[in-house]
Amino acid sequence: MFKILQFFSRRLRYRLSYRLLVAILICSSFFTLLITAFQLYFDYQNNIEVIDANIDLVEQSYLDAITASVYHIDYSQLKILLLGVVSLQDIEYVHVVDQSDPDNFSLEVGNPKAPKDIIRKYPLEITNEFNQLVRFGSMTVTASLEGVYNRLFEKTMVILVSNATKTFPASLCILLIIQWLITRHLQTMADYADGLNLDKLEKRLKLKRRKRKPKNMDELDTVVNSINMLGIRLNNEFLERKLTNEMIIQNEKMKSLGELAAGIAHEINNPNNFILLNSVILKDSWDRIMPILERYHAEAGDFNVNGIPFSDLRNHIPELFKGILEGGEKIKRIVRGMKEYSYPEDAAKRTAVSIKRVLESTLVLLDNDLKKKTENLDVRFERDLFAVWGNFQRLEQVFINLLQNACDALTNPKQHIIIETLNDTENDNVVISIKDNGTGIKKEHLNRIEEPFFTTKRKNGGTGLGLFICSGIIEEHEGTMTFDSAPGKGTTVTITLPMMKDENGES
Ligand SMILES: Nc1ncnc2c1ncn2[C@@H]1O[C@H](COP(=O)(O)OP(=O)(O)OP(=O)(O)O)[C@@H](O)[C@H]1O
Ligand SMILES: [Mg+2]
Questions:
Q1: What is the SS3 assignment for 20?
Q2: Which atom of ligand 1 has the smallest separation from the CA of 458?
Q3: Most CB atoms closer than 10 Å: which of 93, 140, 171, 212?
Q4: What angle do CA 474, 445, 441 make, to 5 degrees?
Q5: Coil, strand, or helix at residue 278?
Q6: Does some domain include residue 45?
Q7: Is the pTM of this model over 0.85?
């Protein structure tokens, strides 16, 4: 019994269940009482009718016999008749008086103290030989409603007890059904809502219900769907705002870095100009001094310059000059890129540009590097490639940076670089892809490579500004630049630039 109570109390631990139970009990008790009251009222009416009918029965069936018995002074017969009368339901007392008797004979049967709720009095009369109606006595019949009340009380008790024994288990069953079908799911929804926060907006609400998907959704399915849709909408909104915020922060960062870069570029530009100019003069001077030194070497034999024998040094010096000039040129390009990134309005004017020509020029510039790095350079130009509206030098700078990155990624000359161009007429773009099968880019680096100063080649002189500058130039040209890369497999950079339809750069 205790276990059963415990089972129910566990099921009914939710307040809604208690309130439902109380509501069901109140409603069912109210209707039980109402129906009982109606039933009692009709039963009461019936009982009164039965009493009336019994009294009528006394008049119809007994009155003549009783009159005769009194008239013929047959009192023993009279008593039998009166006992018959009081045996009728609810007739408690009957009293007969013979007024013709000198002693005023009277006979009473039944309980004289019983409540006299209905009293009917009948004259005892006889028709004499002159056909006159002679009254010689009377009979009083008394009925009590006590029995009626007792019977109605018993009936009420039976109705109430039977209803209670039926209502209580039925209410509990209804309650358990409601708890199983609804309340526990409400609790799950509340738990879900409690555990919801901005990081968990992607989590979906799922109720433990039927396993098979129903044909028609019910109200709970609709609520669950609405809550999940709300979660999806909130999540999208949140992501959108997060992205916007990140973009604002990134733009700010880029802007200030751009300004910094412009400052640095300015500071580097002057000394670099000295390096370039002076090294040209120095190289020229060296070229002129060389025959004199050669002559001296032939006559006097080998000699040391700064601890290095001249015979070695003369071979290295041109290389050193070349390195200085190339390094200076690279610095110049980067500085120009940094300046143009920061002040794009300073960039040279735009014209119709043939991407094929830009790439060809780039390949000439990087000829040495490419030859050193790969034996497999494959260039595939689309025939009649559309022109783009832009700046030749700046686009050339993009391809120089991208091809240098591709070269840097190759670890063995057997690896390839594939350059491909095509017209994407569906989207009105010219598409250029540069594919290498070199080291590839780590997943965690992929979204950082366009950041200024992000480089994995710091030790080899990488500045991390190459892609930063490229992205600025491509953006300026209203194009896109995307990276597809996997470590160990290689990288494909895809650039799209809006095509010029009316003017073909080839022509
Ligand atoms: N094709 C590629 N293969 C592998 N890694 C690449 C490739 N392209 C770019 N990266 C990665 O992106 C980083 C940033 O490139 P970015 O061109 O901006 O700078 P960098 O090449 O390191 O230096 P800089 O171009 O200034 O000499 C590189 O350091 C490298 O890790
Ligand atoms: Mg680079």
A1: helix
A2: 22
A3: 93
A4: 85
A5: helix
A6: yes
A7: no
Reduce the DSSP state of residue 347 to 3 states and report it.
coil
Answer whether 321 contacts ligand 1 (Cβ < 6 A): no
CATH of the domain at 425: 3.30.565.10
- In what order do the strands lie in the sheet containing 133-143? 106-110, 91-98, 133-143, 118-127
Question: Within the chain, which residues score under 70 in pLDDT?
Answer: 1-15, 250, 254, 337, 340-348, 501-507
Which residue has the least CA distance to atom 26 on ligand 1? 463
Q: How far is CA 274 from CA 106, 271, 281, 493, in A?
A: 158, 5, 10, 36
Any residues with CB less than 8 A from the CB of 457 and at least 6 apart, and which?
A: 408
- List residues, by chain if needed, whose CB lies under 5 Å from ion ligand 2: 405, 466
CB of residue 409 inside a 6 A radius of ligand 1: yes
Domain count, the chain: 3
Structure tokens, 76 = 């023993």
- The boundaries of the domain holding residue 409 are 348-507
Residue 206 placed within a domain? no
- Reported as a single tens digit per residue, the pLDDT across 192-233 is 888 888 777 778 888 887 777 777 778 888 888 888 888 888
